[in-house]
Design brief:
mainly alpha; single chain
Length: about 130
């Protein structure tokens, strides 16, 4: 005779439900990882758009020091490449960590310089806008 819990279900049924909940949580976590990977892509593509705008469109419309705009455009293009490449690397790291039941922190050696490059690019764009006035 099988024992019943206070809720009226057998221990094996409860264990099956717990395994199903754990599997569902893992699926949700993997889907969240995929969404995060796509966010890295969106951010990289946005950096490419800024690169094109700063390096080609703005100087063509406003005139001014083409070389400076080109340098800022190149900076944002490199930022976009870095973001997409690190997003892929990060996605693989997180997926492996999920499979092993652990947490993988983001690499500050990549994040800090990337944030610095983005900030410098923003400051340079602001300076170019003010110089051309």
């Amino acid at each position: 005779m099988q024992r019943m819990t206070s809720a009226g279900e057998s221990p094996s049924a409860r264990m099956g439900a717990e395994r199903e909940q754990a599997a569902d949580a893992t699926r949700r976590t993997r889907l969240a990882t995929e969404r995060t990977y796509l966010a890295w892509w969106r951010t990289g593509l946005t950096a490419f758009a800024v690169s094109l705008g700063a390096g080609r469109l703005v100087p063509a419309i406003a005139g001014g020091p083409q070389i400076l705009y080109s340098l800022v455009g190149i900076l944002f293009a490199l930022l976009g490449v870095t973001l997409i490449a690190y997003g892929r690397h990060r996605s693989r790291e997180v997926d492996a960590a999920i499979s092993e039941g652990r947490y993988e922190r983001a690499d500050e050696r990549v994040l800090a310089p990337t944030a610095l490059v983005a900030a410098v690019g923003g400051v340079l764009l602001s300076a170019l806008i003010l110089i051309d006035r």
